[in-house]
Input
Amino acid sequence: MLDVSRVQKELVEVAGDKVSGVSIQLLGNSLSHLQGTIDGPSGTPYEGGVFTIDIQLPSSYPFEPPKMRFITKVWHPNISSQNGAICLDILKDQWSPALTLKTALLSLQALLSTPEPKDPQDAVVAEQYLKHNNTFIATARYWTEAFAKRSSIGLHEKIQKIVEMGFSEEAARAALQSSGGDENAALEKLCVG
Amino acid sequence: MSIDGPCDDDVHLSNRLLNEVKEFLTCCICLEILHKPVVTACGHIFCFWCCHQAMSSYKPSQCPICQRSFTYFPRICKLLHSVLVKAVPEEYSSRNHEIRCMEEEIKLCSPELPMVDSVIPSDSRTRDASTVLDADVLGNSDNNEKDSNNLQPSERDNNDSYRDGEASISTRQGNLTVEDVCCSLCNQLLYHPVVLNCGDVFCEPCLKGQSSKVSKCPSCQAPHSPGFVFVCLEFDKFLNSVFPSEYKNRQSQYPAASIDFTGSPSVEFMSEDLHISVGCDACGMFPMRGDRYRCKDCEEEVGFDLCGSCYSDSSSWIGRFNQKHQPTHRMEQIQSPLSQDDEISE
Ligand SMILES: [Zn+2]
Ligand SMILES: [Zn+2]
Ligand SMILES: [Zn+2]
Ligand SMILES: [Zn+2]
Ligand SMILES: [Zn+2]
Ligand SMILES: [Zn+2]
Output
C-alpha cells in the first residue's frame, strides 16, 4: 500500500516551489504514476531545455526508490540515449526514505551538470564524453535543441502531423501529452503500443 | 502579560508550540508529526513504524538521514512521546487514531502509551526547575534574572491548576513545563540530549561525564549497543527554541561543550546464525544473530523472541509489539535456518 498521504504532501511542496526548476504532474487518478520535469541547468549543453521524466512509485515507496526514466531524449553518459534509463546511485542502492521525489529530480538536474562517465549508462556517449568532449557538447546541445525545447511549433501542428501519419487525433493528443510534447517520443509510443 | 486575556495567551501558546513541533519534531519519512518517536544511536528521530519499516530484515540497517549503520531497533522515547502529548494534544491524538487504523489492518501493535496528558501526583523527588512555559517565557525576554543553578518558578496569574510547591504538570492543553524535559541525572533542562536504545534520555555531558563510550543505561541498566550515541540535534533545537532562557542558563554551565560526532560505529555483523526478519524483544537487535529463543506461550502472531544474552539475563522483558509475555512462559531455542543450509529466502 502506497503512502498516499506522503506523496500528496510531496506534490503540494513541489507545486509551491517556483524557483527550483522542477515540477511534478499527475497523469491520471493514480498517485503511483507521475510525470516530472526539470529545467536544463544553465552553463551546460542542456540549458534552455525542459526534460520530462516518467516516475513510477512502487507500493513500498518511500522505502523503495521511485522508478525514474527520461521521456525526453537526452545525450548524456549516465542516461540511455535509447530508452532514457538512468544510472544514478540514489535511484538504486543509495536510496533512503528520507529522500523525496523533489530531491531525486534535483539530483537528476545535478547529474546533467556533472556527468559521471566512469559509471556510464550509455557506453557510446560516455566514450565520446571522454575522448571527444567537443563533439559530445555539440551533440548534447543539438539533442537539447531538437528534443527538449518547449516547441516552437504548436501542439495543434504536432497533432496534425501525427494524424497525417494515420493515427486518430485523440490518440495523437494523448501520446503527445504523455511524452511531454515531444513528437518523436509520441510517435514511438504510438508505433509500439 | 494581560490579566484578562488568558484565552489569547492559550491560543498564542498552542500555535507557537505547534509550529515548534512542526519545525523540529517531524518525521522525515512520513513527513508528519512524529508518532511514538524512536531515536537511533546516531541521534536521528523517526516514528516507531517508520523506523521499523526502514530497517533491513537481513543486514545492518542504514540511517535514512546520515547513512550510519545500526542493528538495534530502539525503544520508544517516552519522554519525547509525552512532550508531543502535551505540546500538540489534538494533532497527536489524531495521528494516533490514523496509526491505530493502520495497525488494525496489518494486525500488529505498537507499544501502548498514555495518549492523554493527565495530572501526575507529585512524587517524592522535588525538582527545583519548575518553570512553567507560558506566554511570558515565550513572548517577552524580560525574565533574564534567573539564577543559572536554581531556576525560580515563574509567576502564573491565570492558572489555578498550578500551585506553588506542588507538581506543576497541568492538564491545560498545549502545556509543557521544563519538568517535562528534565534530565534524570542532573534534574535540569536537558542540554544536548542523547537517547539510548532503551529510550531513556540524558544530557550528553551528564552521560559521558567519565568516558565517551556508553554501554549501559544509568537509569534502567539496559545494555546500549553499539557503544556510541550522538546528540539528538532536532530535540536540542526544539528545547532551545521553546525554553530559550532556561536553555541559555544551561549553555552557560558548559562553556566549552562542543557536540561530539566522532567515533562512528564499526558495526560487527556476523551473518552466520542469522535469523532473518526476527528481532530480540529485549535489546532490540534486528535482525537477530547468534542464539535465538522463542516463546512457546505468547499467542501474538509476531511472537516473542530473545537473543542469547538477553535470555540468560532472565529479566522479565517487555515486548516490542505489545505482546503479553510473562516470565513464566516457556522458551525454546530455535536454530537459524542458515546454519543448516545456505538458502536465503529473501
Ligand atoms: Zn514517520
Ligand atoms: Zn542518523
Ligand atoms: Zn543532565
Ligand atoms: Zn534506560
Ligand atoms: Zn537481546
Ligand atoms: Zn511469552
